[in-house]
Amino acid sequence: MTPQLLPLLLLLLLAGLPATRPAPPTCYSRMLALSREITSDFQSLQATEPLEACVRYLPRLYLDIHNYCVLAKLRDFVASPQCWKVARVDALKDKARKLYTIMNSFCRRDLVFLSDDCNALEYPIVVTTVLPDHQS
User: Fold this and answer.
1) Which of 54, 63, 119, 120 is most deeply packed, by most CB within 10 A?
2) Pick from 58, 30, 29, 31: nearest CA to 43
3) Is residue 93 part of a domain?
4) Helical H runs in the chain?
5) Pick from 73, 65, 64, 62: which is nearest to 107 by CA?
């Protein structure tokens, strides 16, 4: 190896390592991402499967991992007997079961419940941002 290539090779190694190895997800970030994914998938299911009568009778899935009632909500959803033969519902129940297991077993110490308002999971508050008037 020539002496001119050594600094260039060292620079490439140092510049390439941090960019190729992102930080691994934490328990908390995994729970948060999965809860958002499940909520989004549930809303999509309701929008695309209106002809499937069983979808209307599924327990609502608006998940907030900081609400203690979310554990009961996940249990109820997974145990609901509706839609046994609908593939998208089965996939959603599998994700809900995975989130429950992660929250209840693997990441139990990483989670802090900030409320126990079960109604908030049934009828979530929609937060809107009002921009101030720009006066000149």
Assistant:
1) 63
2) 58
3) yes
4) 5-20, 27-48, 53-56, 70-79, 87-101, 118-122
5) 65
pLDDT tens column, 14-49 = 565 555 456 667 888 899 999 999 999 988 888 886
Strand-pair partners of 115 = 67
Inter-helix orientation angle 70-79/87-101, to 10°: 140
In a domain, 39, yes or no: yes
Among 97, 89, 91, CA closest to 54: 89
Number of compact structural domains in the chain: 1
Contact present, 88 and 60 (Cβ < 8 Å): no
Q: What is the pTM of this model?
A: 0.69
H or E, element range at 123: none
Determine whether 135 is exposed, middle or buried from the number of CB atoms within 10 Å of its CB (0-12, 13-18, 19+): exposed
- Contact call for residues 64 and 35 (beta carbons, < 8 A): yes
